[in-house]
Task: inverse folding
């Protein structure tokens, strides 16, 4: 039964990222996963429940292990984020969640998922920045991967990631030097 | 007739940003705009044509006027971008376009719209950066507004915009100093 739930949740995430949010219905996911609609409804009564189950899978993605060095950790975390966009189409997940945000419950789910997603980058940057600078740095660093993915369906090269990290680290070094 | 087209395109954009991309159908837009479906189909035979007409309206949005000063222009352009997110829900437009990107023709339309959208920020940053640094800076600066909007449905405060611009300008100044 745990296996069934996991199978269906995985299929739901695949449907979401390959066919878009319109396709995430009980009927379509049941068909794609080879289970009955009744089974799906018994686990997840609403479409929001089904979406939440799919998105829960993302919480189990491999996490980058911090070393304590700002530059190394930022490059490592951005490279991991980029890989997740390629492997799991996180850009489409993000777009689907943004689309659903007109629904209050979905908006809360989006906030939870995205806060989790940014937790590590926030922790890394919080050692160098605080206040408005910290918020700016988090959005800027996230944007290096998120913006090209969402706007053009591409991911940044290693050179671009490195250049972005240099810009942020330079600022952090100057700041700590007063 | 030009007025009719403009009316319907404006309604289509409203539908897209308030109800999401699923709602952007000939039937629903015709109903919302108070025109017949036949009229809509005569102007825009496909859903892609209808989407393109809606998105064309964004090309006429007020543009920030550059002064030539890097810091002033970045703050000005980001403030204009933030206002467009608030007034025109550019975040939802971006999310809708990202969702449609599985369709090749839609993917091309998205690339055109987003390239136009980034043209001014690219021109401003190209005076201080080039190569991978330029690409990094464009994504980072765009991310200051785009990331919170897409991930949390919020926009950055003036303090956060200013902090982000400081990070980029510091890097540009150091670079020009060799």
Result:
């Amino acid at each position: 039964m745990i296996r069934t739930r996991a199978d269906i949740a995985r299929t739901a995430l695949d449907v979401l990222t390959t066919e878009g949010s319109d396709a995430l219905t009980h009927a379509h996911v049941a068909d794609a996963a080879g289970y009955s609609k009744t089974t799906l409804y018994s686990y997840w009564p609403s479409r929001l429940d089904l979406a939440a189950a799919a998105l829960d899978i993302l919480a189990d993605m491999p996490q980058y292990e911090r070393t304590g060095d700002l530059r190394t950790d930022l490059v490592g975390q951005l490279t991991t984020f980029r890989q997740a966009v390629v492997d799991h189409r996180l850009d489409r997940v993000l777009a689907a969640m943004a689309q659903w945000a007109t629904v209050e419950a979905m908006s809360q789910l989006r906030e939870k998922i995205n806060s989790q997603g940014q937790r590590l980058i926030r922790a890394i940057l919080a050692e160098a920045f605080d206040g408005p600078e910290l918020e700016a740095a988090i959005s800027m660093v996230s944007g290096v991967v998120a913006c090209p993915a969402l706007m053009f369906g591409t991911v940044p090269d290693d050179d671009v990631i490195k250049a972005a990290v240099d810009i942020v680290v330079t600022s952090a070094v100057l700041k700590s030097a007063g």
Observations:
- Residues 146 and 152 of chain B are 10 Å apart (CA to CA).
- Chain B touches chain A through 56 residues (CB under 8 Å).
- Chain B has nine helices and no strands.
